Amino acid sequence: MVDTMPEVKAESLEPSLDETRALIQVAQGLRPADVYIANGNVVNVYSGEVLPANIAVCGSRIAYVGAQDRMVGEGTQVIDASGYYLVPGYVDAHWHSDLVYLPQSFMARALPTGLTAGFSDSFYLSSIFDADDFLRVVDELSALPLKFFTAVRAETQAYPMLDETQLYDPEELARILDHPRVLGLTEVTLEKLRALAPRQGEALSRILSDVRALAGALQEVDRLNLQLAGRALACVRGYVEALQPTPRAYDRRGARAGATRTLSMVSAKG
User: Fold this and answer.
1) Averaged in consecutive runs of 10 residues, what is the pLDDT profile of the chain (270 residues)?
2) 90-188: which CATH number, 3.20.20.80, 1.10.101.10, 3.20.20.140, 3.30.200.20?
3) Less Cβ around it within 10 Å: N or C end of the chain?
4) Torsions phi, psi of 236, nearest 5?
5) Would you say the pTM of this structure is higher than 0.85?
6) Distance in angstroms (rounded) separating the CA atoms of residues 10 and 144
């Protein structure tokens, strides 16, 4: 007998209005948190700082990070994180839920490392399943503890063993894309797009050409900025050396030997 996962409705990326109200109330201390992680060391991945702080959780979302504990109630689960570092959940930007391993075995190994979400390619899922079965797989994977996200293939890419011109019709694609865990289309090849929609394909080709040209221009700007920064640093160092010479730079009259020469050299560089 094959075990089946319970049917679930995937959580939306954005909190609902009721969830937002509850998060605000917990943060204000007007409502008890579901979980309160105390005495941890929070790693700020933006500033690089490690800050002592507590974390309050409401539902499946973080409501508060700070020193307050007024949101701890009788039913709040309190976890002492003394000596531990708390970091945002890691996100795997590209993995395959349909290749090499079972999703359950992958998540069992990934969760203890701090990975909490992943974006899965769906080439084989899109090639094998119709729209209904594709959505059923997404629902079942959404029941697992690691947040699962994917995108849908609109065409078969460049695999000669599959000769379909498209995997799903526009109505099926729209229905799949309406799922909160399906974030968009994935890996649409320019060659197939040109074949299926020549006008849109050529327009996209021109856009990509402009993007490449812009990227090249930005690289040149970065190179010039590095050169200018190097010259500016050389000027600053020259001025510092001129204003703070070593004792041997003074002659018997008390004048700085070579000072004029040094300043003129700096002026020339500027």
Assistant:
1) 41 81 96 96 87 94 94 96 91 79 82 88 82 91 87 67 63 90 78 66 74 77 78 72 51 45 37
2) 3.20.20.140
3) N
4) -60, -45
5) no
6) 10
